[in-house]
Design a protein that fits this description.
It contains three helices and no strands. The protein is mostly helical. The longest helix is centred in the C-terminal third of the chain and has 26 residues. It is elongated and about 45 Å long.
Length: about 80
C-alpha cells in the first residue's frame, strides 16, 4: 500500500499533463458564439466525429476517467 501511495502523485501529474494535451489537441470550430447558439447551422455541434477526431475524443474520456479514479484512490490510500 505504501508503494502505491508514493507513486500515485506522479501518476496524477502524468495523467493531468496528458489530459490537458488531449483537450488542447481537439478542434474547436464553433468558438464562443457557437456555445450561445450563434454561428451557422453546420458548425454548431451537429457534425459526426470520425477517424482521428473520434479516437482523440475517446482517449480524452478514458484519461479523464483514469484521472478521477486516481484522485479518489488517493483519498483512500493514505
Amino acid at each position: 500500500m505504501t508503494v502505491i501511495a508514493s507513486i500515485l502523485p506522479y501518476i496524477q501529474i502524468g495523467l493531468s499533463i496528458v489530459l490537458v494535451a488531449l483537450v488542447l489537441l481537439q478542434r474547436s470550430e464553433a468558438g464562443l458564439g457557437g456555445a450561445f447558439g450563434g454561428g451557422d447551422g453546420f458548425s454548431s455541434g451537429f457534425h459526426t466525429k470520425r477517424g482521428f477526431e473520434k479516437t482523440l475524443f475517446t482517449m480524452t474520456i478514458i484519461v479523464a476517467i483514469l484521472f478521477v479514479v486516481a484522485a479518489f484512490l488517493s483519498l483512500f490510500v493514505r
